[in-house]
Structure formats: structure tokens, C-alpha cells
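In keeping with the milestone schedule agreed at the kick-off meeting, the structural modelling team has produced records for the first pair of proteins. Each record is given below as a sequence line and a C-alpha cell line. The laboratory manager (R.T.) confirmed that both were archived under the project's standard naming scheme.
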Amino acid sequence: MGLLLNVDYGDPLSLARGRDVLRRAGVKAVGVEEAVDAYYLHYRRPIFGGRAGNEVWARFIRLYVNSSYYSAVAPLCRLNHRASREAAVRLLRAFESYLLSLEKRGRAWFGRGSQEAWVEAMRQLRRLFGDPADVSELHRVFKKLGEVLGRGRRGDPASLALSTASDPRRARLASLLAKAVDLSALLGDPLGDMGKVEGPGAEFEVSHGSFARVKRAVAYAKALFVGALPVFLHKAASSTLPVRRPRARGDSGVFLLVDKSGSMYSAVEGVEKIALATAFALAVLKRYKRARLRFFDVEVHRVEELGDLVDVLSRAWAGGGTDISRAVEAAAEEAARERLRGYSLVVVTDGEDDAFSPAAAREARVVFRDILFVVVGERRLSGVRQVFLRPPPLVAVAPQAAYDFLANTGRGSTL
């Protein structure tokens, strides 16, 4: 019997989930019962009253449930399998680390030992879960980012927030992505007529959103509102409500290359270049159905969904050089290999690459219908068609009030 009265510890599904959590956690100090506790503690609202086989585990869980960590994590996990599994794995790892530290200091629970045990428990929880405020902020940003991308079902913002929150770069990542989402909303169609072919204007496609887009709900969502209000509210709260969003018709295809080298993490007029570049990419992905996104530094990184975007932006944070020519060549090779007909290549970069050769762009014209370089900052590239992307001076002072920034355009020599 475990800690929770509203869990059947002999149920095959409960046991399977517990074993899965135990395997993913890779811990030796607990068994399946504790793993089931850790999972259902997050998956549903717990009803305590059971007896744990491990008294130290029971005390640790009481500390956790009464902490700010549980208050931040639990609401994200309710009825969410992936998020509950991620939280359970982190809780078991925190407990095992906690046990190892107690072994060194002795397992005293009274007087000074009790206080030390509490401090150590909080330290291990913070190490595995991150700051509670960061968990909530990352979840908010990832939900909003998923709505912008129109991929609310392909990624789980809650589990992604939990897996990212313990990263020491989390605060900067959250700030960058939040800024990029806000900026992208004001860009409209960032490429104008470049990525379109002849045809009627806009049409709608089914995407996923939350209360912010409830006016665009499809007929199925409206039926849920009338006949199954709890399901409607759950889908709206989790950004999986079927809604319509406009997209360009006659979309000829856009292949996006976005520079993520170290120089892109510097600021231009108070705004990180990578935030501007990511905002541009999000605006294109939102507008164009046939769009491919790749980030590059000295290598090219594939981005297919929300989790990939977060991983690419955080995995090699502000590191590495820039090889624009190699990225253009790789894009041309991929387009030729996969027979991407009629695509335009758009390279978003700050141009900080002294080895860049316009010849690579000229050769890529064999594969791409058009090529455009979007330069973030002031550096001008020679021998290519380019426009300049920069924020207005006001962004550095009042970012929320001045995100209408699609740049003054300038032309270099055309290909």
C-alpha cells in the first residue's frame, strides 16, 4: 500500500507507469510503490491517508507537497501523462540525492538535524526542478509559442517547461522566447510577395489555440462548448482547442536559415539579435504552410517542432563561430535531395562571417527560386540581395510599446 488513497497500486496501468518512471529515473533507492506515488501525486489531486513502506520517503513527500515547488509543478501536470512522468522522474532523482546527503550527515529528524534535513530537501528539489517562478514562466512562454507555431498537439509545453526549468540558462531562454513571440505577432507577412505565387488571397486552416483565439473556434469546438463544457474548458486551457488561422494561399515555399552563432546573442539597440531573428522566423512559419526552418552556426541544426526549437536555442548557448557559406550549401543540398520545387531561400544573419563567399549563394540559385539575406544589425554583405532588420531605438526603453520594427530595407548588389 502506498501514500495515496485514490490510487490502486495493484492496477496494471499504475504498475506499468510506475515501472516506466523508475526506468527513466535510473534510481536504486526506491521501488515501484514510490514511483507510483511520485507519478499520481502529480497526475491527479492526491488524497493522502495511506501508509508508505518507507518512512523517509513519506517525510520527504510531505516536505515537497507543502513547498512552492509542488505548487508550481502540480497544476501543469493534472491529467497530463508526459508532464506527470517528467515530474515523477525528477522527484525520484531528488529523493535519491537527498538520501545520499543524509547518509553523510546522519538521518536526524529532530532539533538541528530536522532543520538541516529540510534545507537539504529544498536544495535537491531546486536542483532538479529549478526555480518555481521559472517553471511557471517557461510554461506560459511555451504555450504561447506553440499557439504561434500552430502545433499545440505536437509538443507538450508542460513537460518541456519541467525539463528546461533546471537549466541554468532558463531565465534568459524564457526572456528571449517571450520577446520573440511578442515581436513576431507584429510582423504580419515579413516576406511580402516573395514567398507567394499567383492565386486568391488568404484561406483558413485548422490549428490549435486557447481562450485568446476562441472567436475562431471551429464547429467541433463550438459543439463542445454547448454539449461538453468541461472538455471545452480543458482544451482551451491547454491550448488544444481547434481554431482557424489564416495562411497564405499559393505559398511557393520558404527555406529559412537562421544564424545562432555567438555573435547573435549580442544586442542591437537593446534587443538581442537572436530574438529578432527568431521573431522573423516565427512570423514566416505562422504565415507560410510550406516552410522549413534550420538554425546554423558552424553546423546546420534541424527544427521540426517546439521541442527542437527550445533544444537548439539552449544546447549551444552563445557558442561557436559562423559559417554562412556552408549553411547555404547544406540548404541547397537538402532542397535538391528532397526535390523542393519553387522554394525561396531566406538567410537571417548578422553577417559576422569574414569567410562568407557570395559564390555559394550564386550556386544555390540553381535550386532556389529566389534568395534573400535578412541582416540583423548594420553589417552589409557584398554580392547578395539583402534587407536590414533592426528594432527602433524605443525598444531598449519600452519593449512592450515599440515592437513594430520591420526594418528599413536596403539593397546590396543582386545575384
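The second protein of the pair:
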Amino acid sequence: MAAAAARRSAALSAVADGSSTVVDKHSCRVFGRFRPLEDGADESPWSIVDGREVEIPTATGLFQCRLDAVFDGETSQQAVYEATSRPLVQDLLDGYNASVFAYGQTGTGKTHSIYGPVDASHEHRGLALRAIEALFRHLGGLEASIGGTKRVAGITDVPPVVRASYVELYNDAFNDLLTPADVVLAEPTAGMDLRLRTAPSGAYVEGLTEVEVATPAEIFELVAAGNARRVVAGTAVNARSSRGHTILCLQLEQRVAGDDGAPCVRTSKLSLIDLAGSERAAATEGLDDERAEEGRKINLSLTSLGLCVQKLTTAAKGTAVHVPYRNSKLTQLLQDSLGGNTKTVMLFGLSRAASRLDETINTLRFAMRAKKLQTTARVVDAQALRAAAAAAAPSAAPSRRPSHACATALPLQ
């Protein structure tokens, strides 16, 4: 028994550490987006230089921040998608995991950038919806290859499968946004306060609903239903403030062939992460206890996120450090997206208002730190996957597919 366990561990470790894999060392790509100025607000003296650098005069000198790109309030949703997320669709098809974060102070348009109106015909639909549309266009029009693997009749001709899950972390509890309506009607607490579990492949939310989808319209319907369940409330600076973090995960399964022609299922995932906005303590003053507690929980989880990013950028310099992912459920679940097996993009929401200048500068400082993040994205070749899965075969299969965990793949039986 011990020897078998050792063999399974060694085989899975060989896959995890990059043996027999395609490995891509990836630097986090970071973007900023200014929201149009709110009515009646005074504008801060900011400027964008060559589309990449923000300059803001301050009492202590000129603040400068250079990112991969910076968008002003007039930039279209399509242009933001093209720059930030379009390349990730091809990465997903090639077998890599990919993550998109929307981060920033409350009221800076993060949810608008990610989702916008959930309507396929609306010009302001967000980057998540556009990525979904592009994914299905690719899946419907594949020609010579899929996932970088040579097509083989009877193997890669099998249609790929896409599954969706949607979860909210609200007041430090995971709530399933896709729990069927009839289940919720029968049991109002169904899908709420789900447990975070760990597995060799990473952390996942136990019992999270996964829905197999065949068209963008099916996902849009799920997103619209999930968004209706999100906790949203008014605060001093945002009339419709998201009170929890959400993660929409699309998992793609493709049937691929190795050099020996044997079939294998390769999985990759796209995680779309809409973080609740950071809030100054003053912004929660005068709010009822429920709103104030939400603000505290949001800020605590974002503080943990910031600490993990700080430690990861220190580690990127070659210094051995402990990264405290377990300080927060948010960072524990997103460990791969921050420093693991994924290609990561971060989009920072920014305010043009003079009254929020300090927060904007702090956000940009964090964005500069995030640019130093390094991840190692892997596509495991079919033969390595079969060897690892064969070694792991004696162990009991889990009763439920882990969601938001590191991508896995299994040989076809």
C-alpha cells in the first residue's frame, strides 16, 4: 500500500514539476482603466503618456507608473478585451490555464469591465462575454489543429466540452451562484457557505455546481442568473457596490493525441475574477452594521491578497519566503492564479476624481508591484498524463470534480 502510494505521488509530482511538459514562464500582464468622471466631481490632474504610463503631479513631486497599457474613460470594451484577454483565449485552447483579475477601489467600473450588460448584442458587454464568444468561435471553426496537437481521426474529432461554475465569496463564505432555482426554492440555504477543500491539484470549493454548456447564450444565461444572486448594496461612494468577490470559471476539455497516437483528455481553465472594491474606513462610517462588516471582510481579504503579491515578488528575486496563502480563503482558492500554473492578467480600475486621488495612487503602486509577478504555465503532454493517471488509478476517484483547482487530465478508458 505504501509503495503504491509512493509510486502515485512520484508520478503526479513528475507532472507537477514540469517533467514531460511544455512550460511557459509568464510575467503577469497588468493594465489600468480610468472610469469616466462622475457627475459633479472635480478631476485630478492625471495624464496618460504613450498609452502605457500614468503621470500625476503631487505635493511631493511627479508620480509615475508604467504598465502594459492604460485606458482612459473613452476606451471601448472591445479595445480593452483585445488588449487584455483575447490572447488568453488561444492560451486556453493550447492547454494553458488563464486568469483575469479585476482589482481596484470601489466604484471604478470593475464589474462593468468584466461583464457589462449580459447581452450578446450590446456594444458595452464586458471582456468575459467577449472571451466566451471568441472561445466558441474557435471551437466551432477549428481547422488543422486543436490545443497545439495534431488532429487524429477518431480522437481529436470528438467535440471539446466546456463546463462553467460561478461562485461568490461573501463575508468569508463561498456561495454557489449557479444552484438551480428549484433547489433554492425547496431549500433557501442550498449552495451557501460551501467548504473550501484542498487536493494535490490545489484548493477547490466542495459541492460547487458545474454546468456543461454548448453555446455562449447558455453561459450568458447562467451569468445573468448568477449576477442576480450576487450581494450588491449602496455605499457612500457607489450606489451598486459588489459586496463579495466572484469567480466565473470555464473549464475546457479537449481530446488530444500523443506521439504514440493514443487518446488523452487535456483540461485547461479560464478564471474570470471580479474582486470587490477596496474601501477606506471613512467610506463605511455611518453605514449599518451589515454594510460595515462587509467592508471589513472585503478589506481583510484584499490585504491578504496584497501581502501574497508582495511575498511572491520577493520570491521572484530569488529570495526564499513563505507566501501566506492560507491567511485568506480568497488567496487560498486563487493560489494558482497568483503564483502557480496559469497565465495571469490584472486589470486595475482607477478613478479620475480629485477626492479619490490618494486611493488611485495606492492602486497604481500595487499595480506596479503586480507586474513583477511570475507564474509557470504548463501544458502536460499526453504520455506524461497517461503515466501519472495510471499510477494514480488504484486510489478512489473523488465523488465530485474539483472546481477552480489546477487543471487535470486523464487517459480515455
